[in-house]
Amino acid sequence: MTSKDKKQTTETGLRKGLTSYGDKGFSLFLRKAFIKGAGYTNSALDRPVIGIINTGSAYNPCHGNMPQLIEAVKRGVMLAGGLPMDFPTISIHESFAAPTSMYLRNLMSMDTEEMLRAQPMDAVVMIGGCDKTVPAQMMGAASAGLPAIQLITGSMLTGSHRSERVGACTDCRRYWGKFRAGEIDEAEKDEVNDQLVASVGTCSVMGTASTMACISEALGMTVTGGATPPAVTADRIRVAEESGARAVQMAKDGLTIDKILTADAFENAMRVLLAIGGSTNAIVHLAAIAGRMGLEIDLDALDKMGDETPVLVDLKPSGDHYMENFHDAGGMTTLLRELKPLLKLDAMTVTGRTLGEEIDAAPPSFKQDVVRKFDNPIYPRGSIAVLHGNLAPGGAIIKQSAANEKLMEHEGRAVVFENSEDLANRIDSPDLDVTVDDILVLKNIGPKGAPGMPEAGYIPIPMKLARAGVKDIVRISDGRMSGTAFGTIVLHVTPEAAVGGPLAHVKNGDRIRLSVKNREISLLITDEELAKRAQENPVIEPTAERGYLKLFLDTVTQADKGVDFDFLRAAKIVGKTPK
Ligand code: FES
Ligand code: MG
């Protein structure tokens, strides 16, 4: 610890981080004078200051309950004797962030980190929900180092289309697929569009938002039961109040984030990711958060954990239910109890108790049909498998629980698309030379390629195959896919094509072998041929002249490092997780 850090931890409330310019007394005098412009009394100011991150935005209906949450957090803070101070940061919504939300995640993490450092506060409640916001907030808080609680906005309610229950966004994809295949008409497409997002809140299936909510609780970053209450429920508001009160106690106890985000906590998060059939995106986010703490996620260990961690949570897209059902079934407590023998129970949580203590203190279990028993899983292994081979020397992943059993052992002819534009131009062409046995390969949608590693890895079924009733085909890319998507889809091929990974050199007609059983993804050409191609067609990495794009392209890391900027990761990597 440096002497500067030491000084910061002894100063609290409004005295924190005072700029002195030689006269600290005057700085505090000025600070108080300005905050009093908002009508505060001296007694209000003389208590622990709890920051509350407001990520409300008209562009972000996933955070549409922000005003109620902030009010409840403030109530909790005040009941516990603290002073609540809400402030804005960037907000990112999946559908309103071009070129892709992932491009902006690191920017949001920097905004979060620097505002936590700059403004005087003793602890912070971070309110986020939509896919990139929770990882960005945890990354920022991990680097800033103060006591921090994650407050999730909560899932949206499900809607009803002609009496069938629907929710974003697995059903968005399903209905769009039906429309493309000519199974529903324009009018029905518009009708279902009204029902897919039935309220404010995050996507109601086990997509990235729900996955990160569950992972936040598994990491010990939320109060117990903080992951699952839907956005519009009283339970969600109570969680907000509790989070505010808890933050005050964390400030008093000095329960900083480094005591929570330990290697054990990340191991618990990896277990939970596998058991919930969670989004593949969470691997990237976990790697990024861990990287801020000086830890590396061991992908091969994750794969091995999958042998002993079945998918237990029956939510779409791996199963049948929605987040509100998971909440009714007891939420994460029910799951954690089932996973207990596999968890690191000594991991500390924001409640000041360990995960094991929280599980033991929870109300007794009851009959429900969303969280399965160990001996009756949804899927016998973990949801995600890690692949290696000459096509992905740095690894690739597949969500095996959402893939087609028959296609998981498959050899086929490559049908190659050079980038997203090439794909858009040709995928629906009646002239596209493609059969159901082929393997679609999409290049240049990795961290630098697109840029921002968009969720374009869910390559659509070519129109002519879709019309013939084909529902799945093997697809490979260096991109990501939405946690709400399904199919036999190989993702995160590392290194990506744009930095000269082998993927860049795949040609139409090459043979590719996918064997999930053997954890293999191979391009069936010789090493000599691959080297020859690389020499003949060297890859020129993308660059930019200025601005955030330049920062991004100059410093972004590959998927295995979380697609974080290299300079934002901890200065020293001290270990791997699991240990
Ligand atoms: Fe925000 Fe799905 S779009 S959680
Ligand atoms: Mg998503």
UniProtKB/TrEMBL annotation:
Residue intervals of the Dihydroxy-acid/6-phosphogluconate dehydratase C-terminal domain: 369-562
The UniProt record lists the keyword Lyase: yes
EC number: 4.2.1.9
Coiled coil regions in record: none
EC primary class: lyase
Keywords per UniProt: Iron, Iron-sulfur, Lyase, Metal-binding
Residues in Dihydroxy-acid/6-phosphogluconate dehydratase N-terminal domain copies: 47-357
GO terms, molecular function: dihydroxy-acid dehydratase activity; iron-sulfur cluster binding; metal ion binding
TM regions (residue ranges): none
Gene3D superfamilies hit by this protein: IlvD/EDD C-terminal domain-like
UniProt similarity note: Belongs to the IlvD/Edd family.
Protein name per UniProt: Dihydroxy-acid dehydratase
Native species: Polynucleobacter arcticus
